[in-house]
Structures are given as structure tokens and as C-alpha cells.
Amino acid sequence: MYQLKKTTLNYGLIPLLALFFSNLIAQDKAYFQQEVAYKIEVELDDVNHFLTGDIEIKYTNNSTDTLSYLYFHLWPNAYKNQQTAFAKQLLNKDRLTFHFSKKEDRGFIDQLEFSCNGAALKWEEDFENPDIAQLNLPQAIAPGETVTIKTPFRVKIPGDFSRLAHIDQAYMLCQWYPKPAVYDRDGWHPMPYLENGEFYSEFGSFDVSITLPENYVVGSTGDLQTESEKEFLEQKVAASKKIDYESLYFQEHPFPPSSEKKKTIRYTAEKVHDFAWFADKRYHVQKSNVELKSGRSIETYTMFTNGEAILWNKKALEYTNRAIEFYSEIVGEYPYESVTVVQGNYEGQDMEYPMITVIGRSMFPILLENVIIHEVGHNWFYGILGSNERDHPWMDEGWNTYLDARYMTAQYKLNVNAEYWVYLEQAKKYEDEAIESRSQDLSDANYYVCAYAKPTLAFRYLQEYLGVEELDRILKKYYETWKFKHPSPADLRAVFKAESTKDLDWFFDNVINSTKHIDYASTGHSCCNKHNKASITIKNKGQVPAPVSLSALDKENNVLEKIWIGPLALGADTTVEMTEKNAVAYKIDAEEEMPEINRNNNEIRNYGLFKKGAPIKVKFLDDFRTSAKPRINIMPLLGFNLYDGLMIGAAAYNLPIPEPEWEYTVLPYFSTFTLSATGMGELTHHSYIKKHRFSQGLSFKTFHKRLKRYTEERPYAYKERFYKITPFLELKLAKTSDISKERHLFRFENAFILEEQGQVSGSRDSAGVTTYSFLGKETTWRSTHRLSHYYTNQQAQTPINLLTTLEYANYDDGLDGREHYLKLSLEANVKFMYSALWAVDLRIFTGGFLMHSDRRFGQFPLLLIAGNRTDYHYDDHIMGRQETENALAQQISLREGGFKTAIEPIIGAGASNTFIFAMNLTSDIPLKLPFRTKFFKLKPFLDIGYHYITNVTVTNPSFADGLMLSGGFMLDILDGAAGIYLPLFGTDTIENKVKSFVGTAFYRRITFSFNLSKMKPRKLVEEYG
Fold first, then answer.
1. In the chain, domain spans
2. pLDDT tens digits along 789-819
3. What residues contact 67, with CB distance under 8 A and at least 6 apart?
4. How do 645-653 and 662-671 pair as beta strands?
5. What's the rounded Cα separation, in Å, for the pair 400 and 380?
6. What CATH code is assigned to 1-202?
7. Which residues of the chain register pLDDT less than 70?
8. Cα separations (Å) of 91 from 84, 97, 442?
9. What pairing do the DSSP bridges indicate for beta strands 963-973 and 936-947?
10. Are the C-beta atoms of residues 862 and 848 closer than 8 Å to each other?
11. Which of 338, 414, 337 is nearest to 369 (CA)?
12. Could you tell me which residues are annotated as the binding site for Zn(2+)?
């Protein structure tokens, strides 16, 4: 074995140029496909989890080219180490299990000794991809010639990471044998194994013999040839009929010991391009058959364990039969003799292979049905129509999802149209990619959008435009023309061009091959001409010259009349006449089948104050949109702080999924304590310039910050309120690529803060008694300007967030003067994953005043410890802003220095008007604690900091005087949204302040925090998707 030079498959300029020129040449080449005939003998070692065997491949060169070498896929090597393309993709998908796996749990293929026609040949493993090999032939294969390639091989079956896997002694044998890459009119297609991005293999025949302990139940591609195994399966089928599956619902299903005696079972298959098999000693087996219209009978099998037996019992067979009938009717008759559906609760999840499919956990009958329909349907779109799934995933996933959605709609009258909302979320943010995109170039979100959701919308749109019968007729023609072949997008387009009388260039050029958005609007309306007709004007405001439907609707939204218009040129409009009788509205795409970017401008009504646009709906406790109609969602809320008491209110909001142009959240409250209105809210407008999001908005909040109660000594009471109004601008830069984890956000905000301050005077009489009187309240204002840059790189192993902030403030010093400062700070948060579950979190903060007009006495210092009384700019939700003695005095904010101890906020106690530096460490505990969950984590913490002392009461401070340290344990709640902290030790500077502030009572050391900004809907969407 040798390694190819690094440049062999380097995905750079040379391969792109080669691909460009090969495509030019390929345009003139006639279609051909190579033919392979496999004979494989393999044995399973279920103790050490190995496959050993021999493979013989008869390879026929049907091209007009002479081949001096062959590319082979050795896909078990994708599991060999953490540097493979598969391993890197899993990291990009935030899946760390394989990265931190043990060597003995990974997989590989070895003991390869390739020969061609009996002569040993040299072969080379690709430098970057050990799962791709080049076989250098001793003699070139001439056009029309057949050669025999042989090799022994051994496969180490990996653990539960992807499709090829074992869970104990349950085996999923997928992509397990050495196979030649496809050579077609575009040349060679060597490709590494990937999780996102499926396969492309040559059609041929298989003759596979499998040896394993005889009590294993096997489900496989192909037709079973071994009579004894047929009898064994019949016995399993008979036993299955006697089982009470409801009694198995909560029962574990342990693996029985493997038989000492072994069996060899043989399968054959024709006109397939892959071979997969599944083996489990626990499988229950059920059998049925389905009669096709041609009279052929197809055998169907289901194999499942106790896990979801109550769902699978009989129903899984019924769903399988329905799938075969449905696809045979719509697309074309199923050509093979059997279909098997097996259960496999592993990371490979639901996956299709010729004649067999594996299904993961389903939980509900309707989900199991949907998945079986989809996966069995892949026998047509992938199995029989063998398109290149890596380069054109929509050609199988798109057609198949469109068809399984048709099935579910017909079966259950479902009209959720979830594909539209998934597409719209990406499209509204200009983050969608073209349907015609390569799998490896797409993020998880866009892989689903481009391969599944958007093509489903596109084909549904085409169905409405052509008519369902015409679309089905053309689809049947496509199937008959290209079954058992490798159709390309150009081949699909050619069939539609030849079969349809309508010009569909707009569809393939713009809907399939671009990210251009469709948007038609109803712009004008006049009614009641002499022919009792209404005139409606519609305009193409989008980027696609597409056809559009217009419908007249009655008051129940029933379609009275429907016409198709266009395609209209970009920016063009047209006026059409429609029936006026009984019509109350006219709507573009009334059935909502078009993948339109904006449906809010589709409707125009005969009556009403606002005739254009969809009417606004008010919904109570609504959380997800299911139509294009704009809505205001209402939800009751309760709030609390010490000075407003219990607050009763509501939230009025629109959800940020999909992203609206105008985004708002308004939370008005009524304080039951002060009997006054309080609340907060935010209004944001989003627009896009070349995929960069520009946002402008305004936030506000007002609550009470202090309450002075009546006493005999001070016979008056008053309350102090604050108001904060913050206009802001944001620029969120577009990602450099769809799979990039890096983001940049720039924000400028100008916070105007008004604060009420009670004014009190005191006079002392001759007896020395002081009498206090309330003079009223004075309102002061200040402004704070912040310019921030937020950088994030959410790579799975070491995610990092950086926040750089320049802050300028102008404020009243309380002595009839104005002060100002300019502050620069940097906050870095880095998570170091040391296993798939556990991490060490490091936070670093440093800040300093570049300018300060009152450096010695300034009111807004940098803080190592931010307590309840130091939220100077009202950024946080503080329940007791002036408290010093009760439990609310223990509230802290994890700002600036991020220390978790509560002390009296006096200048000198970790505060500086010059400079501070802090480092905060927390760590998961690598133990399976009984109360540890994803949302509640017990962690140790350590805070280390330094502040340059500017307190005028401290003379000649040393460096050591500025050092502070504290540590203990914390309970992290909802990933930083809240926390409870128990500081156990600290430097003398801190410990002395703690004792003077809270005393020696142990429980008074406990502090807590809230970070409600992490729970904002938009922040959750942008951080977690």
C-alpha cells in the first residue's frame, strides 16, 4: 500500500479546472455507465466485531476511454482517525462523540491485497482521504473489456457513530466493502465518506455469502437463496404471531448468547448499486406481501426489537405495503422481489439501501409511518434512479420528500407545510443556498433546506402549474427512461423539456439553480364593471420571472375562480379580470404552494378599511406560525422586584422564526405595590444589503429602583423610578461560507437614562434632635454610548466568543457638575471540550479607562465584583437594587470581573477607575452525578483578578493589594441563564469584606444571578439555530 501525493485529490484550482474542461468534453459524450458484478464471502466475528472476507469484482469498461487506473472507495477507513473528512464534518456538525472516541471503538478496513486478472497490482491511499484509493492497473482496460479485481479484506466495525456501526451485538453493515468509484461521462467521482452527503456507486449484480452464528436474524439487500434460512425466518414469523407486544413495552431486550454453531446464508441481487445488511439476535420478524396492478407479488418483511414493538407490530408492515403501492402507482412499478424494513436505534438513524431500509426511534405511529414511507420511497429515488447524491442531493431527497408529503396529505389531510417555514427562515436572512448545491458545501440547516424542503416546495409549485396528472405523467416518463441509470440534473430537465408543452426554463434556471426569491404582490383593485367583473393588478416584485396563480375567494376562503398568469418579467405588472359574484377577496397563490418570500402582500379585498395585505390576527399563547397572515401574539406574564412588588402584565410579540422585517416584544406591567405602570420592550427593523443584515431599533424599560418607607424618624415616603431608552444600530456580516462557524456583529447604541432622586433635608434643634423633611424628587439624566464588536467561532471542540466594547458616558456628578469617561474593554469566553460531554470554561476580561475626568472619585468604576447596587446602566434584571441586608442583596451580575461573591460596593473593593483584569474558570465535573442534567450542572469555579487601586483612602497601594481570588461551587442553570454560587474561600481582601457585609453566617455567602438576555427569542435562534 502506498499513499498518493497530496496534490492527487486536493480540492483546489487544478481539480476545478479539470472539472471545468471535463464538463465541456462531457457535453459531447454519449451516456454510458460501467458495470460491476460482485461476489463476496464474508464472516462476522461478533466477539471482536470484525468482518473478514474475500471480494471478487468483474469490472466492465463501457466507456470509450482506456482506463489505466481505477479509484476505489474504502469507506470503513472514514472511521480510522480524527483527521478524515467524515471526522471533520462531524466536528462541524457539533458532534464530538467520534472525536473523543477510544481507538478500539473506531473502524477501518485492512488486509487488502488487490490483484487484476490474477496479477498483483500497486495501489495508493489518498494523502488526505484514507477512504479513497487509486489502483494502478498492470495493463489498461480497453473499451468494452472486462477485468477481474480480487482482494481479501478485514473490516473493524466501529461503534455507534454513523451508518456502519455496531451496538454491542446489533450490527448495521453499510458501506462495508471495497467498491469502485463511479466513472461516467464526467470522469471519475472519488469521494470520501461523509455523514451529510450520501453516495454514488455503479449499478451491477451481487452474490454475497454471509457466515455468522446461526441464531442471528439477518435483513439484507437481495433475494435470499438459502432454503434453511428461509425456514428459519418462517419460524420467526410464526413465533412473532404469538407474542403479546403490549407486555413488552417497558421490558429490556438483552442479547442472548451467540450460538456456537454457524450458518452461511447467500443473497443475490441484480441491477442494484449497493448492498447493506443488518444482523441482530433479538429481532422479531413479521411478513406480508403486496399485490401490484401488474399482478406481481412483492414480499415484505419487518424486523424489530422490543424497543418500539408496540408501534411496529403489524403497523410497520402495513406502512411498508402502502409505500410500495403508492410509489408504484405514481412513479413506476417496483422492480425487485422484496422489501425489508429493520429497526436500528443508532446514530445512522433512518437510512435507505436497495431493497432494505433501517428506521430509528419514532415514538409515535404517524412518525413511524412517515419515515417508512419516505425511506421505502428511496428505492425509487436513489435505488432505481441512481443520481449522484453527493453533488445533487435534491434529485433523490427532494423528489422523495415531495412524494412522501403527498402521501401524508392524502392519507391524513395534513396541511402543515413545514417545509415552507424552514425555507423561509433561511431565505428571510438571505442565508439560503441554491437547490442545486453540493452536500459538502452546506450547513446542517441548508442541507435540509436545499435537499428536502426547498425542492419539495418547488415540485409542489410545479404540480400546481402543470397539474398533478401532467406532472405524474412526466415523472413516469423520467422513471422509465432513467431507471437503473445515473441521471443528472440536465437529464431530468431534458425529459421535462421534451414532454411538457410549457417553457420551464424559469423553473430550472431560477428555482433550482439560484437563490433568487419569488415575490408577487396585489397592487390594485377595482370592481363592478359592466360585465360584473373585478380588475386586479398584480406586480412581480421578486427576482424570478415565474408564473403565478390568482384566485377569487368567498367569505369562507373557498376558491371561486383560479387563473394562471405569466411568467411576468421582473418589475412588470398586469391587470386581469375575475368574477365579482360572491367574491370578497382576491389572492395570489391561494393554496400557498409557491415558495414565495413574502405572502403578506398577496391578498386584496373588496371591502374593509385596509384592503391590501393579509389581515392582522391576534392570537393568545400562539407560538408557531402556520400561515402567512401577520399576527400579534399575546401571552400573560407575572413579574417581580422588591420596589414594584408583584407585577401583572402581558407580552405582545411576534416570533423571530422566520425572521420578520419588523420584530417587536412589548411587556407592559401593572405594579400591584406602587399602583403604576412599568414595563419594557424592543422594536427592531431588519434589512439586508448583499446578505449583510442591517438592524435599527429602540428598546426601553422603566421600573422602580428604590422605595422609601414611612418611619417615625422620617415621616415621609416616596419611590424612585428609572427610565432607559436605547436607540441602536447593528450590522451582522454574512458568513464567508455556508459551513463557516464564524460570525461578526457590530453594534452602536446610545442609552439615555433618567433617574429620580428623592431630595431630603434635615435640621437639628437645640436639643440635638434632627428633623427630616421630604423636598420632592429631582430627575437627572445621563447618556452612555457603546460601540461593540462581537465575534464568535462556534467550532465544536473550542468555541470562542469575543466582545470588544468602547464606551463613552456623560453624567451628572451630583455636585452641579458634569463628568465623562472613555472606557475600552475586551471579554473572551472560551470553552475547552475535554470529552464529548464535559468542558472547562475560561472567561477573561480586561478593561481600562482611556480617559476619565474624575478618575479618583468617578461614580462608574470598572468592577471585579458586580453586585446588586452596581448595575449602573440598568442592563440587568435586579430584584433589589438598593438592598444591603436581605437575601436580594446577594444578587450579582457576571459582568466585567465576573466574581461570584457579594460585598458592599465601595471604591477599593475590586473597583478601579483605571484598569482591571480578571480570569474566571469553571469546569464540568466528569462524574455521572444523580442530579446532573443538561440544564442543571454542578461546577467548581475559580475567580482571579487584579484591579489598579484608585481609592483615595488607600495610600501607596502595592501590586499585591490589587490582587483578588475567590473559589467555590456553583449550580449552572439553563447554560448561563441563571446561577447559584457558594464561594468557599478567597483572599483576605475579599474575606474581610464578606464578613463585614454579610457576617459569619454560612448561608449568607450564597449568591445568585440572572442573565435573562440569554433567553431572548432572537438570541436563542442565533446561538442555537
1. 1-202, 227-262+282-384, 520-615, 636-741+750-782, 794-868+884-1025
2. 999 999 999 999 999 999 999 888 767 778 8
3. 61, 137, 140, 141, 183
4. antiparallel
5. 8
6. 2.60.40
7. 1-28, 250, 346-348, 416, 528-531, 607-630, 814, 857, 904-908, 929-932, 952-954, 997-1000, 1014-1025
8. 11, 9, 14
9. antiparallel
10. yes
11. 414
12. 374, 378, 397
pTM, 2 dp:
0.89
Give me the pLDDT at residue 366, please. 93
Count of alpha carbons within 13 angstroms of residue 827, beta-carbon side:
15
Cell of 594: 409557491
Q: Quote the CA–CA distance of 340 and 462 in Å, as a whole number.
A: 32
Pairing of strands 520-526, 356-359: unpaired
Pairing between β-strand 297-304 and β-strand 338-343 as defined by DSSP bridges: parallel
Burial string for 342-353 (b: 16+ CB within 10 Å, else e) reads: bbbbbbbebbbb
Phi-psi group of 382: left, alpha or beta (phi > 0 → left; psi -120 to 50 → alpha; rest → beta): left
Q: Which three cell numbers stand for residue 76?
A: 470503513
The model's pLDDT over 567-621, given as tens digits with 9 standing for 90+, comes to 999 999 999 988 777 888 999 999 899 999 999 899 988 766 556 666 666 666 6
For residue 537, count other CB atoms closer than 10 A to its CB.
15
Range list of β-strands (E), 948-1019: 963-973, 978-986, 1007-1010
Contact predicate 799/754, CB 8 Å: no
Question: Annotated active-site positions, please?
Answer: 375, 452
Contact yes or no for 466/502 (Cβ under 8 A):
yes
**pLDDT at position 222:** 97
Closest to 308 measured CA to CA, from 363, 264, 261: 363
Question: CA-CA distance, 805 to 823, in Å (whole number)?
Answer: 8
Q: How far apart are CA 730 and CA 743, in angstroms?
A: 13
Q: What is the DSSP letter of 75?
A: G
Helices (H) and strands (E) in the chain, counts: 15, 53
Residue 581 has which C-alpha cell? 359574484
Looking at residue 259, the DSSP 8-state letter turns out to be P
What's the confidence (pLDDT) of residue 434?
96
**What pLDDT does 529 receive?**
61
Q: Which helix (H) or strand (E) holds 839?
A: strand 839-852
- Contact between 204 and 35 under an 8 Å Cβ cutoff? The reply is yes
Contact 726, 749 (CB under 8 A): yes
Largest CA distance in the chain: 122
Identify the pLDDT of residue 616. 66
Q: List Cα–Cα distances, 83 to 87, 128, 390, 593, 923, in angstroms.
A: 6, 8, 20, 44, 27
Question: How many angstroms separate the CA atoms of 640 and 662, rounded?
Answer: 29
Domains 227-262+282-384 and 520-615 equal at CATH topology level: no
d(CA 308, CA 316) in angstroms, rounded, equals: 11
Which positions make up the binding site? 374, 378, 397
SS3 label, residue 828: strand
pLDDT for the residue 414:
73
Give the span between the Cα atoms of 707 and 729, in whole angstroms: 35
CA 290, CA 339: separation in Å to the nearest integer?
Answer: 10
What is the β-pairing status of strands 742-764 and 718-732?
antiparallel
Amino acid present at 718: Y
Classify 168 as helix, strand or coil.
Answer: coil
Alpha-carbon gap, residue 57 to 164, rounded angstroms? 21
The set of cell numbers assigned to 535 is: 380588475
Where does 29-153 have alpha helices with state H? 85-92
Rg over alpha carbons for the chain, rounded to the nearest Å, is 35
Query: Within 13 A of 528's CA, how many CA atoms are on the CB side?
Result: 4
The CATH label, of 3.40.50.2000, 3.30.420.270, 3.40.640.10, 3.30.2010.30, for the domain at 227-262+282-384 is 3.30.2010.30
CATH T-level fold of 520-615: Immunoglobulin-like (2.60.40)
Q: Is the peptide bond before 658 cis (omega within 30 degrees of 0)?
A: yes
- Within a 10 A sphere around the Cβ of 526, how many other Cβ atoms? 12
